[in-house]
Amino acid sequence: MKTVFEKTEWFRKAEYGFFFHFLNSGSALHPPENRSERIPAPPDEWNRMVDSFDADAIAQQLHELGAGYAFLTVGQNSGYYCAPNETYDRIMGLSGDRSKCSRRDLMLDFADALAKYNIPLMAYTTTLAPGFDFDAVRKLKSIPPWNCNANCGNYQEVKQFAGTDPRLREFQTMWSAIHAEWMRRWGTKVKGWWVDGSYFADKMYAFPDPPNGKSFADALRTGNPDAIIAFNPGVVYPPCAVDPNQDYLAGEINEPEYGLLNGPMVEGMQYHVLTYVGQYWGKGPVRGDGKALAAMTRNITDNGGVVSWDLPFSPKGIDDELFAVLKEFADQYARSKKLFPKTEVKITPPSWNMEGKAIPGKAELHSADSAEIRLEWNGSIRTNGGKKDAVIELSPANAKECRLKLSCGGFSREIPVHIGKEITFSRTPSEPIVLKTKDESRILGSYRCSIDNGCFLIDAEVFEKESVIRERPWEGSCLEVFLAGGKKEKKQFCIRHDGAVFQVANGIVEECSSIEVVPGERDGKTVRFRAEIPLSLMKDYRPEDKEFLFDFQQTINAESGILRNILSEGVGCAVYAFAKAVVK
Fold this sequence. Notes:
Blueprint: H1 4-7, H2 9-14, E1 16-20, H3 43-51, H4 55-64, E2 70-73, H5 86-92, H6 106-115, E3 121-126, H7 134-139, H8 155-158, H9 169-186, E4 190-196, H10 201-204, H11 213-220, E5 228-231, E6 265-266, E7 269-270, E8 272-276, H12 290-301, E9 306-310, H13 320-339, E10 343-348, E11 351-353, E12 358-359, E13 361-367, E14 374-377, E15 380-383, E16 389-394, E17 401-408, E18 411-418, E19 420-425, E20 433-436, E21 443-452, E22 455-462, E23 478-484, E24 491-496, E25 501-505, E26 508-511, E27 516-522, E28 527-534, E29 547-558, E30 561-566, E31 579-583
Parallel strand pairs: 1-2, 1-9, 2-3, 3-4, 4-5, 8-9, 11-19, 19-31
Antiparallel strand pairs: 6-7, 10-13, 11-12, 13-16, 14-15, 14-17, 17-18, 20-21, 21-22, 22-28, 23-24, 23-29, 24-25, 25-26, 27-28, 29-30, 29-31
Helix pairs in contact: 4-6, 5-9, 9-11, 12-13
């Protein structure tokens, strides 16, 4: 049996590829606000759309772009799929012209077209049934009894179909059978899977007995035991794994500059990032020129990762304007590898403590070949002296973020580096940590923090006249507290201004009785409360380490509407941007 490192070798060597969201009209990549936008084309129109997909033309374009592989969605949330499946049809009670599975096996045709150029194909699917097809979620019994806000954002609509089994055993058995049928047909022509919406791995997969993560992974490897699999936990910075049965990180992020890890293996899985080349999934215009895309890709591939770029396209292919940018990207990427040797960069961010003392960071460089690499940081210029290995000190800048620019042979790439905060807490309440609006025109809240008897104590003063309460607590009057311990596993807690507390994990919102909130005076201008958060809620926190990571995000209701800001201003509440709490 191959190890994960061996199974993912071809993927790692591919370095980059492209991702195609080919979906029935009305099947949104993310929940549409307008219900009418969810209405898909009927089966006859869907079949015409699938038949119009020019697999040979697109394969030719990918060959010209140096693609190491391609992804294609077999389906998503509309209930329609671009390949036949008798098991799905039988469960749905549909057949012939009424089937929502296309007559053409587009996955098979696309795989054959790509094979002419030795470009592997991988498939996209979802963890749950198509969330906008109410008939499908009912017949597949895929709605859980727990409140899942991340389930296409429409749990309130579909909870009428909720079952009583929190593990969704019947659904998982049927879903595995559906995918096993596809893989029996495709075999080794499909090299792997990217499984979206795996926000609930702990509730569905983390069990020793099937159905579980292993049984679903086994179904996805039917006919191809070497198929590589990723389960997607959503947009997470930096990318992480959710199930031990996956082979590579799903790596969904919106900003590829902030997906830097040190690979090639992370948590025993291949380092991988999936992002979009445009302004959003499947939408243009392109976010940068070819050289910028090449630089962002090099940041990840030089560190042992793989980058998948989602593309806007039509069934006829990539349009001329985008193709020209992508061709420039491919040319610049290939050219850069001749000018700038592969150079892994490991960043230890610099920071400031509460007393204004500078705590230097460092950039550790390891190059495959000797070359003079120029580094620009905060107005200063250094070089690696032509050595393969070098360590460059990074002094903190008077900014929340600074960029490390590396140049060699006329090619440059930049790495954003967050300037951290280090705050010492003791049993005595700290000086106020003040959080303002982004334009600093208004104070949102002030927090005095302390540590006592294993609890993180927050004495909060929030400047709000009248609170507003929302079903999703973070959308209304709320203090969000983010915590992370030694392994940087993020915990998110929402403390509403009415005293209710919730824990948010992978889109699931649950009441949290472990955190005690003691309300204070409310004078019509401010809301005061004390939150007592046991540090033991972080499973990977060890008191002897005397440190953990934290962040605050405050939301208030104001005359002008909802105001919100975060202490770190990190992308996507990213752990790398959290402040470090030192326990004294």
